[in-house]
Amino acid sequence: MSTLSPAPSVATLAVGLLERIDVLADQLAVRIVDRIEVYRLEYIVDRRELKSSLIANMNQILGRLSGDREIELSAPRETGRARAEQDMPLPEVLRAYRLGFAFLWRRLLGAARSSGQRTVDALLDTATTIWEIADDVSLAVTEAYREAMSERMIAADRRRSGLLSAILDGPGSGSHSAWEVARLLDLPYDGTFLVLVAEAVDGNSAPLPHLEDRLRQLDVGSAWRSQPDHEIGVLSLGRRRDPAEVLAAVRKVAIGRIGVSPVFARLDGAPRALRLAHVALETLSPGTASICQLADEPNIDLLVRDRDTTRRFVLRVLGGVLALPDYERTTLLATATAWIQARGSAAEAGRLLYCHENTVRGRIHRLEQHLGGTLDDPRNLGDLTTALQAIRMFPEFGQPIPATA
Predict the structure, then answer these.
(1) Are the beta carbons of 193 and 269 closer than 8 angstroms?
(2) Distance between CA atoms of residues 137 and 211, nearest Å
(3) Which residues, in sequence order, are bridge partners of residue 193?
(4) What is the third-level CATH fold of 188-296?
(5) What confidence tier does 182 reach under pLDDT thresholds 50, 70, 90?
(6) Which of 209, 191, 207 is nearest to 199 (CA)?
């Protein structure tokens, strides 16, 4: 910031302009409106507010040149904040200040020439100080403008995050219905949706850098809620966008674990989708940059509600199989999965496994021995189907256990 004292003759020029500041403000306002198109839109900046701002800024600039005081920056700071709140482009705001300084310089120079060559020389000697003041003022405007815009963005993000919480946390979590929140977030209420839960790897990096840009390119809408450990997003895929294409875009930017819900059709299904996305993330190995999406299968809500209970259920049903040597354990589990997928057809399961149907029957017989009952019993078949489904969702449940267990 400039601290040089102006020459007495320059101070006299500044005082003379201060005495005419009302007229000068009118003249400068006309020049700004004529040169800068956005200032012609009075619903953004009306003429009275523009003139008031010009007077405040010129008072502080000319007051510094008059030697009356150090330059104050409250006026440019207030102007910067006001223009940010009015959504005025920053380059146009700074252009108005450049026009203002050029206008004051011409008025000072004209008054100096009327006073004589010595005054002109003194003004020229002060030119560096004037342009230093211009730099200080421009910097104050820019900083205040950016601070105000940052505050607006933070406030908008908080409001959007709060609205999204009303969807993710379910009924009773806010004053708006899911339909109202969808409208406020500019998302459809019906459509094709996913919930993502992305693990925050560290406090300095976004879990999904630049993902929103990629989603916009795919015409996928999104709303986000940031938490200390996770970034949570609701994605609206429209009715034509392939979820696999969207997840491919997510995978490209992932730097940590990401859990993805099954596809759901209405925003009021987001609370359930969020629970399933959290479960999907927990199935991934810590420290990996990987993605997992749960399928919306029968019993999924029961299986994910209490993982310890689900683990005990798997051990009760398949404990004998899990205690077998690796090859036999994996063979029997794969055969059981193929046999159920083939709806109990040994021939079809054999085609899936590339083995003879008698081989499948023999393995199913050994499986029944470890299950302690025949699969002709619907209860045993139901338990096996559910246990295999749990292993698909939580692969660690299918890991070997000691035979003594």
Answers:
(1) yes
(2) 37
(3) 236, 264
(4) Alpha-Beta Plaits (3.30.70)
(5) confident
(6) 207
**Segment among 38-52, 66-80, 138-152, 251-265 with least mean pLDDT:** 66-80
Distance CA 217, CA 235 (A): 13
Of 245, 198, 197, residue with least CA distance to 219? 245
Rounded Cα gap, residues 279 and 261, in angstroms:
9
Dist CA 362 CA 265 (whole Å): 43
The sign of the dihedral angle between the CA atoms of 114, 118, 119, 120 is positive
Q: Residue 132: what residue type? A: E
Contact 398, 322 (CB under 8 A): yes
Q: How many residues does the chain have?
A: 405
- How many Cβ atoms from other residues are within 10 Å of residue 403's Cβ? 11
* CA-based nearest residue to 288, from 251, 241, 256: 256
- Looking at domain 304-398, its CATH superfamily turns out to be PucR C-terminal helix-turn-helix domain (1.10.10.2840)
Question: Residue 35 and residue 33: Cα distance in Å, rounded?
Answer: 6
pTM given for the model: 0.55
**Region at 17 (left for phi over 0; alpha for psi -120 to 50; beta for the rest):** alpha
Residues in Cβ contact with 213 at an 8 Å cutoff, skipping those fewer than 6 apart: none
Architecture of domain 8-151: Orthogonal Bundle (1.10)
